[in-house]
Model the fold of this input.
Amino acid sequence: MDTKVIEVNKNIIITQRITDPNVVSFHTNINNVNFIPDVVIVKMITFNSAEALPTGGAGALTATPYNQVFNIYTNLVDDGFIGSFTDVGSNYPNISLLIKKPIKGQYLFQLLNPSNIAVNFIGDITIHLDFIKYKEVREGKIY
Done:
């Protein structure tokens, strides 16, 4: 396999809006990757927290943007983790993960805190994944 020559790829955008404060995970179906990819590249993770900001009054909530860090766990890849982010903003990790299996079905995505404990969240999350199959290049004899 020549990792410089892409035979085929498929970009998938996963978008989820979470409005229930008790939610700690979500599932998404991926059924349109019609080849067995060698890798998946995590191109972008965007999260916009809908948690209330502190008002300074009695009973104020304590969620403050950029004070929370989340790791994303998924059963899509053997490593389990595909990236991390803060509670507001976008990042572009360009993490390449070996996958080498058919991608078809329902996959779990879960946000974990830095101690790897599932956390609830309210907001919008978008994950851009690029599934890639590299071209097989056979080594030839050089005379």
